Structure formats: C-alpha cells, structure tokens
Amino acid sequence: MALDNRFQASMMHTDTTALIHTIDFLLMIPYPKKSAKLIMGNPLWRRLSLILISFLIALPLYATPKQDQAAFRKHYQLVFPQLKLADYANGVYAIDEIARQSWLAIEEFPPYETAIEEGKKLFNTAFSNGKHYAHCFPNKGIADEYPKWSKTQGEVITLAIAINNCRTSQHEPALPYEKADMVNLLAYLSHTSRGKPIHVTIPKNDPRAMSAYEQGKAFYYQRQGQLNFSCATCHIQNAGKKLRSEILSASLGHTSNWPTYRLKWGEIGSLHRRFAECLTQIKAEPLPEQSVEFRNLEYFLSYMGNGIPISGPSTRK
Ligand code: HEC
C-alpha cells in the first residue's frame, strides 16, 4: 500500500519535535557518574532503557485522532487563514468567490426542497407493524452524531445504515442506498440537524473503533488508480488550486453538507456517491455505497470535521 507520506510526515512533525525535546530533556538530567555506571552497567536497566527509547521513537507513528485533527486543521489554517472553522461547511464556495455568487443564487430556490418534503413524509409513514422511524430515532436532529461506532455490531454505523437497521428491526425490507427513498430520508434528517456541530466519537474502550478510524485514515492517504493520486493529493496538497476548471476544496467539512443536489447529477445524491466519483476521476475502482472502506473513510473525515455545523442538504456544481 503506497501511502502518501508527504502530508503525514508534516502531521507527525509536531510529535517528532515533542519527542526530540523529551529525549533532550532526559539527556540533560544530570546524574553522578557513579550512579550512571550503576544504571547502565546493569543489564536489566540497560534493556529497560532501550525499550523506553524505542517506545518513544515509535510514539509519533501512533498519533492520536486528536493529534491528527490538530495537524489537519493547522495545515488548512496556514493555507486559508481567512476561514473560520464553520466556513468549511460550504466546501469550495468558502474559497471560490465567483462560484459562491452563483451558488447563493441557486440556494434561494433550492432544488433539494422536494427531497426534504418526501423524506419527512417517509419518516412519518407507519411501517406495517404500525410503528414509525421515531420508534428508533428521536426526531430532534441526529445527523451530527453519525457515523457512530457500534460496539455490538463491531462496525461503523452511518446514518444510512442506521435507517436500514431500524427498518429491519421492524421487519421492513432494507432500502437500496443509492435510490431516492434513502436519499430523501437522509435529506430530511440532515435538514433537521442543520447548524448542529458534528460530534463524532471514537470510544476508547473498544480497540476495534480505533482500528476502523486508522483504516479510514490509511484509505485517505493511500495513492491509487491509474493517476496514482490519494485524496490528500487533491484535497490537501492542492486545496485552493485549480484542477481544469474547478478549484479544489479542503477535505475539512467534507462530510457536513450531505446529501447534495449536484447540477452534474441532476439530482440529489449521497456522500459515498461523491467518494466513488472522485475515485473514478483518478481511474481507481469505485467502491459501493456503504462499503466498509467508505464507512471507515467517512468516520475518519467526520472526526477531522468535528465542530463544523451540519449544512445538508446542499447544492454543488
Ligand atoms: C484528481 C483530484 C481529486 C482527487 C484525487 C480526489 N478528489 Fe474529491 N473532488 C475533486 C474535485 C475537482 C471536486 C469538486 C470540487 C471540490 O469541491 O473540491 C471534489 C469534490 C469532493 C467532495 C465534495 C465536496 C463538497 O463540498 O461537496 C468530496 C466529499 C470529495 N471530493 C472527497 C474525496 C475523497 C474522499 C477522495 C479520496 C478517495 C477524493 N475526493 C479524491 C477532485 C479530487
């Protein structure tokens, strides 16, 4: 797996600096020669100190999600010092002033309005057992909490998966992820959550959650496709620059505005559909919506975007 190491190296920079300071500090501590001989002369101590040093060296390879998030944001702050965290919810329109004007004009009569209405109807329609979605979900705006780690299922549960879990628990067939009913439900649930800051958690008491996050992160930095690009190549290293006629957006906030009505699609579609399209652009194999890879990727990206308000559904070119 070829990882895109340039940015990861810069993400680790802070940790490496901290590590060097720690080692410097340890070396600076004065101790009498005699006790030094006593310590280093003792094979057990020698072995323990070697273990400690290798542990310290390995530390930066295990950056915590919080450290990843800080490095991720620091990078964008340097590139786009004028942006506040919440601005990233608007994707490329936070940085492309000309495109922003036509976007604002479209948003005056948003083409996703019917999707919200249809989604609301579905949400309030009874299942054949007489129960509703409200039996599974509080109707108070919940999109900000997804994706979630499920300890019982041992996997990342996106809002779309949660909707289908609700349906199957009520003996209803699961909805296909790419079809209108699912996307409309997502549009309604996203709309009821608008303005709520994303807050995705990675529970510490289940190492599988951390592993899912790490897999999502690895996928993000993995170079792939015939063009041999990673997500980071375009959305980190080239964010703000032009790719053909389009300015590339930052990945920060990429999970906040879904589902999205894209003029190019002529309809409203999901975040995973957009992931698949970016993979196709670099001539890589697109994965199906709600595949484990895409869910883990969403988990990583949502965690990076914690605190950014939900702005879905939205419109994009
Ligand atoms: C060849 C460059 C390129 C690569 C590589 C790439 N993308 Fe994109 N991506 C684009 C362009 C161009 C757009 C449309 C303009 C924009 O919003 O940046 C876009 C848009 C997006 C959007 C929609 C943003 C919004 O506000 O609606 C998401 C999400 C996204 N990309 C995720 C990814 C992910 C995840 C990967 C890695 C699997 C990836 N992209 C790889 C070029 C790329």
Overview of this protein structure:
This protein is mainly α and 317 residues long. The protein folds into two domains: 5-62, no CATH class; 67-317, Cytochrome Bc1 Complex, Chain D, domain 2. Helix content is 50%, strand content 6%. The chain is built from twelve helices and seven strands. The chain has helices at residues 5-28, 33-41, 43-58, 65-79, 97-108, 113-124, 159-169, 180-191, 207-221, 231-237, 271-281, 292-304, and strands spanning 148-150, 155-157, 242-243, 246-247, 260-262, 267-269, 314-316. Strands 6-5-7 form a three-stranded mixed beta sheet. It has a two-stranded antiparallel sheet with strand order 1-2. Strands 3-4 form a two-stranded antiparallel sheet. Helix 9 crosses helix 12 (292-304). The longest helix is centred in the first third of the chain and has 24 residues, at 5-28. The chain is globular. The relative contact order is 0.15. The model is unreliable at 1-7 and 9-32 (pLDDT under 50). Bound molecules: heme C. The site of heme C (HEC) has 22 residues, from helix 10 and helix 11.
Question: Which key features would you list for this structure?
Answer:
single chain; binds heme C; three-stranded mixed β-sheet; 317 residues; disordered N terminus; 50% helix; 12 helices; mainly alpha; 2 domains; Cytochrome Bc1 Complex, Chain D, domain 2; two-stranded antiparallel ribbon
